[in-house]
C-alpha cells in the first residue's frame, strides 16, 4: 500500500559554517576618507616634526607655582603617525608616511635635521622608515572591531613597537655596515638608550592623548 502522505527523502541537510565562509570584520573607511586622512596625516607629520611635546606641572602645584609647561623630551610627530592609522586605517597611514619619506629624501627639509639622500646615514632614519609599517599595523588593528578605547590604545602601542623595532634594526645595521666617528658598535648602546629607551615614556603619554582624540572623532563620524 502507498502511504497517504509521501515521505520526502530529499531533506536538506543543515550545513555548518566553515572557516572558508567566515568573513573578518572589514574596515569601514571608504577610499575618499582614506585619501583625505592620508593627506591630513602627511601634513600633520610634517608640522609636528618641529613641535615639541609638553605637559603642565601637577594641578595641586598650580596655586603655588602657577601653570608651568614641562617638556616630554619628544615631539608630537609619533602622535600624528599613529593618529592617521587610528582614523584612516592601514592604507591611509602607510601612504601618508611613504609620501613623507619620499618628500624628505628629495631634498625637502621635512625631517628634523633637514633632508636629502644623505639622511640615510642618520641614526634616526630607521625610526622614520618605521613610520610606514608602524602606521600600517596601527591602522590594521584599529579597524578590526568598532572603535573602543582599549582597542585603539592596543593598536597605537603595537604601531609604536613596530617603529622602535625598525629603528633598532637600522641602528644595528648602520653601526656595523657603515660605522662613523659617532655611531659604531662600541657606541651603539648609548644610541639605543637615546633613541628608544628615553623617548618611550613621553611617547606613551602622547599615545594616551591621540587615543582619546581618535575615539571621540570616530564616535562623531560614526565609524
From TrEMBL:
CC annotations in GO: plasma membrane
MF (Gene Ontology): biotin transmembrane transporter activity
Membrane topology of the entry: Multi-pass membrane protein
UniProt feature coiled coil, ranges: none
Compartments reported by the entry: Cell membrane
Keyword Transmembrane helix carried by entry: yes
Family, similarity comment: Belongs to the BioY family.
Keywords, sorted A to Z: Cell membrane, Membrane, Transmembrane, Transmembrane helix, Transport
Membrane-crossing segments per the record: 35-55, 67-87, 94-112, 124-143, 152-177, 197-217
Name of the protein this chain belongs to: Biotin transporter
UniProt source species: Gloeothece verrucosa (strain PCC 7822)
Superkingdom: Bacteria
Keyword Secreted appears in the UniProt entry: no
Entry-linked Pfam families: BioY (PF02632)
Disordered: region residues: 1-26
Amino acid at each position: 500500500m502507498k502511504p497517504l502522505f509521501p515521505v520526502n527523502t530529499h531533506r536538506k541537510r543543515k550545513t555548518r559554517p566553515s572557516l572558508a565562509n567566515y568573513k573578518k570584520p572589514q574596515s569601514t573607511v571608504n577610499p575618499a576618507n582614506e585619501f583625505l586622512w592620508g593627506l591630513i596625516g602627511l601634513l600633520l607629520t610634517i608640522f609636528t616634526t618641529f613641535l615639541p611635546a609638553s605637559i603642565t606641572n601637577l594641578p595641586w602645584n598650580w596655586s603655588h607655582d602657577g601653570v608651568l609647561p614641562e617638556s616630554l623630551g619628544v615631539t608630537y610627530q609619533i602622535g600624528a603617525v599613529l593618529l592617521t592609522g587610528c582614523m584612516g586605517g592601514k592604507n591611509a597611514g602607510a601612504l601618508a608616511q611613504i609620501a613623507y619619506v619620499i618628500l624628505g629624501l628629495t631634498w625637502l627639509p621635512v625631517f628634523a635635521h633637514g633632508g636629502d639622500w644623505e639622511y640615510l646615514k642618520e641614526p634616526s632614519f630607521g625610526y622614520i622608515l618605521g613610520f610606514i609599517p608602524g602606521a600600517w599595523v596601527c591602522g590594521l588593528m584599529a579597524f578590526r572591531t568598532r572603535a573602543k578605547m582599549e582597542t585603539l590604545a592596543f593598536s597605537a602601542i603595537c604601531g609604536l613597537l613596530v617603529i622602535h623595532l625598525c629603528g633598532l634594526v637600522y641602528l644595528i645595521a648602520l653601526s656595523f655596515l657603515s660605522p662613523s666617528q659617532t655611531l659604531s658598535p662600541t657606541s651603539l648602546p648609548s644610541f639605543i638608550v637615546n633613541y628608544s629607551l628615553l623617548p618611550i615614556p613621553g611617547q606613551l603619554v602622547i599615545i594616551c592623548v591621540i587615543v582619546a582624540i581618535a575615539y571621540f572623532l570616530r564616535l562623531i563620524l560614526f565609524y
